[in-house]
Amino acid sequence: MREDPRLRMPLMFITALLVQTTVLSRVRVFDVMPDFMLLVAVAGGITAGPTRGAALGFVSGMLIDLFLPTPLGLSALVFTLVGYWVGIANAGVLRSAWYIPVLTAGTASVAGVVCYALVGSVLGERMINGHLVTIAAVVGVSNAVLAPLAVKLVAWSFGSLKAGTPLSA
Amino acid sequence: MAVYRRSRRHRFFLVLLALTSVTVLTLDYRGADDGALRAVRQTARDAFAPIQAAADRVVSPVAGVFSTIRDFGDLKSENERLRRQLDEARADAIRGADADRERQGLLQLQGIDYTGGLDSVPARVISTAPTNFQLTITIDRGSDAKVEVGMPVVTAAGLVGRVTEVSKLRSTVLLITDPQSNVGVRLANSGEQGVARGGGSRNPLPLELITTEVPVEVGEPVVTSGLERGLFPPQIPVGQVRSASAAPGALQKDILLDPSVDLLRIEFVRVLFWKPAS
Fold first, then answer.
1. Residue B56 distance to chain A (closest CA, Å)
2. What kind and span of H or E run contains A158?
3. Which residues span the domain enclosing A25?
4. Burial (CB count <10 Å: 0-12, 13-18, 19+), residue A150
5. Distance from CA of A5 to the nearest CA of B (A)
């Protein structure tokens, strides 16, 4: 039986959500866990350019927002911007070296965490304190480590689109 | 030209998504949507609950190995410390039981209601919130078990937090260590009132007293004050004074509390059927 390629995208999101809520929330370093849903947005930008990066960021942000106590849409907004900017930044990069996605994921994750805290603070959540430095550092490093895996997962989920449109659209 | 048009389309799409996020954010933040978004959120959580529970069953033994390796060095010294504490606690329990009997009698005489008599429902801690910014836990009881927003959550050792979100099968509990948390408390020895704020995970809780000229002893127990319109019923243990110091010339003492519950390792809690007076 052949799998339906249209199922790949939803499957990818469910997998990412499960990884984030069950696996990673238990594996904490300095009380901080990796942010896999943010990483999906980053990987979207890396593999498929700004538009799809933004779209993936929007969906993954909305999904994780459903399970967070913060206002709905906060992660969606930040992840959309992150996915878009990673796509723009990666457009000029020749993708030959393995460390490019790793470095991109690390940097973009730090930026995403800081951006999230800033927008959250505007909404009255107490997010900017000494712990933010630790959060940004741990998320940056751990997301960089997980980046190759996330890029593979996201590229697989785009497999359905391979036939018609080029990935860099 | 083609590049120009393409980047314009990119930007249009980005603005569209960003505006959608901001719209949802605004609606949810202001609560102006008659609970439609809340319903979506609750449905999603309930629908995901069984999948999460199944994945959890697979993951938890593996995660257990990970944390055992990570914490191994601490376990030995912790064991010794716990054994010592157990001895002390046994002695305290005997003294406490006696005092409690006496107190119950006095309370009954005065007709004051006693927190110990509150109805409650036990719950299992499913997970911590999948975020680095909020100190919350998810428990496996929701509105089906009559849990409501605002109810206090405790263990046998003391206060854990209060319920902030409820769906049919799950509830979210804001821990007392979260920076957004405020607990009205009373020093057990002097009876002074104050507010214990969250200081972040693993950090002690800073305590602000209403009056400053109060002797505070290290190790002094602190319980919820249960003042009128408070968020918690009275007499729930919150923690112990870890340190109390005043900088020269300072108007206020810096008092830190150690929570009486080990909030990093709770497995079972009780939700008290008590609602704050609004």
1. 6
2. none
3. 5-158
4. buried
5. 22
- CATH dotted code for B122-278: 2.40.10.340
What ipTM was predicted for this assembly? 0.76
CB contact under 8 A, A66 and B40: yes
The domain that holds A51 is classified in CATH as 1.10.1760.20
Contact A56, A154 (CB under 8 A): yes
Does the CB of A116 have a partner CB in chain B at under 8 Å? yes
The DSSP secondary-structure symbol of A32 reads B
Q: Which residue has the tokens 């376990």?
A: B75
The residue behind tokens 């009128």 is B228
B23 contact partners, CB below 8 Å, separation of at least 6: A73
Chain A contact for B180 (CB, 8 A cutoff): yes
Determine, yes or no, domain membership for A165: no
Total domains in chain A come to 1
SS3 of residue B222 by DSSP: strand
Per-residue pLDDT of chain B (278 residues; tens, 9 = 90+): 445 556 777 788 888 888 888 888 888 877 766 677 888 888 888 888 888 888 878 877 777 777 777 777 777 788 888 888 888 888 788 778 777 767 766 665 554 444 566 788 888 888 777 788 888 888 988 889 899 888 999 888 888 999 988 888 889 999 998 888 888 888 887 778 888 888 877 788 888 876 767 778 888 888 888 776 678 888 888 888 888 877 777 667 788 888 888 888 788 888 988 887 76
- Partner B contacted by A66 (CB < 8 A): yes
- Tell which B residues from 14 to 53 touch A, by Cβ distance under 8 Å: 14, 17-18, 20-26, 28-29, 37, 40-41, 44-45, 48, 51-52
Write down the pTM of the prediction.
Answer: 0.75
The answer as to whether A164 is a domain residue is: no
Is A58 part of a structural domain of the chain? Answer: yes
Q: What is chain A's alpha carbon radius of gyration, rounded to the nearest angstrom? A: 15
Collect all residues of chain A within an 8 Å Cβ-Cβ radius of residue B20. Answer: 58, 76
Q: Which residues of B touch A116 (CB under 8 A)?
A: 133
> How is residue A92 annotated by DSSP?
T
Instruction: For residue A52, tell me if it sits in a domain.
Output: yes
